[in-house]
Predict the 3D structure of the following.
Amino acid sequence: ENNSFLLMHQPTFLFCLSMITTVLLSFVQGCDSAGIQETNQETKDRQVTSSNSDQSNTTDETETADPYETRCGWLQNPTPSNIWLQDRDTTWTISIQGGYQAESDGDWWPNFSSEEWVEFNGNYGYGCACLEVITDEKSDKILNVKSGEAKPLAACEDDPQLAPMNN
């Protein structure tokens, strides 16, 4: 009797299972594309917090590390909304026109002087800068930009670990 019930409702069950799977996959993919994923630093922070709370401390507060890191290199903005940072490790995507956009905690764009910004497409171009960011090493994307500071061009030009800029 139980087998006949299952056989009779198998198509409905399979349809429901496929719909649930589709919804879950869409949710996971949507989270990834929106940058809602745990970075390596967040994992480390969570592990530090977890291990600290497991130990008996005399203080009630558990310190967590700041998830932001300083990345310095060539900040490139060749065309509207296309922005990336090329540092010693990789080229980090910050923004792609009509596509990916890093989150921001405010007005982070460095205040470049005319000596610090090389224009080659109208006002667009590149400069040397340090940014406070959260990165995703798997995708080479900057997930969040907290702040930025312009540096002299020589700081990047003289860094042997940075590729030279060719405009």
Q: What stands out?
A: The chain has a mean pLDDT of 76. The chain is about 30% helix and 30% strand.
